[in-house]
Design brief:
Layout (H helix, E strand, L loop, with lengths): L11 H14 L4 H17 L6 H17 L5 H14 L4 H10 L4 H14 L4 H12 L7 H17 L4 H8 L4 H12 L1
Helix pairs in contact: 1-2, 1-3, 2-3, 4-5, 4-6, 5-6, 7-9, 8-9
């Protein structure tokens, strides 16, 4: 680390400015913002400062509490929005839950977000699996000459994305795009 590196300020006001700046750019969970602010402590230590880590962590906690009280940091709202966007992108319920867990969202907020997703997407993982197959050109969306040779790989791709094996097989083995869409409409209707 260069000697001329300036240590970031570790005051409560500096933490709040950093958190607000981050939240202006990104939607984030409380745990994500906490990690961003914790990195400031590490940068200060690498720059040669000897920060009081306990006091800095206490200041971070107070900043996070204030942001939550003002409604700027809400894990339930973050989880619900993230679940909907990932669901529309063709992610499975399991993949969405895993992604939210990695972002530090509490299990209760994850369950509530998945319940909201079920209301938005009553057909569940079926529509998401079809959307992913369409986007990645798997199964019936693939050129007919390649379907047989790529069948196992296509099923594996959907399984790795978190879809049940039976659902992955059903999507990949559909006779045609029209048959797949009719199956999706049958469930929705």
């Amino acid at each position: 680390m260069p000697a001329d590196r300036v240590a970031p300020e570790l005051s409560e006001a500096a933490f709040e400015r950093a958190a607000l700046g981050y939240l202006e750019r990104y939607s984030a969970s409380r745990a994500q913002v906490a990690r961003v602010l914790e990195r400031r402590i590490l940068r200060a230590a690498r720059a040669g400062a000897e920060p009081d880590r306990g006091a800095a962590r206490d200041a971070i906690g107070r900043v996070l509490d204030r942001l939550a009280a003002r409604g700027l940091l809400d894990d339930a709202r973050f989880a619900a929005g993230r679940a909907l966007s990932l669901g529309r992108a063709g992610r499975s319920r399991r993949a969405i839950a895993d992604r939210l867990r990695a972002k530090g969202v509490a299990p209760a907020a994850i369950e509530a977000a998945l319940a909201g997703l079920d209301e938005e997407r009553p057909e569940g993982d079926r529509a998401a699996a079809i959307a992913l197959a369409r986007r990645r050109r798997l199964g019936p969306f693939r050129a007919p000459a390649q379907r047989v040779e790529r069948r196992q790989r296509d099923i594996a791709a959907l399984a790795r994305a978190g879809f049940a094996l039976a659902l992955a097989r059903r999507v990949i083995e559909a006779e045609s795009v029209a048959a797949l869409e009719a199956w999706a409409a049958e469930e929705a209707g």
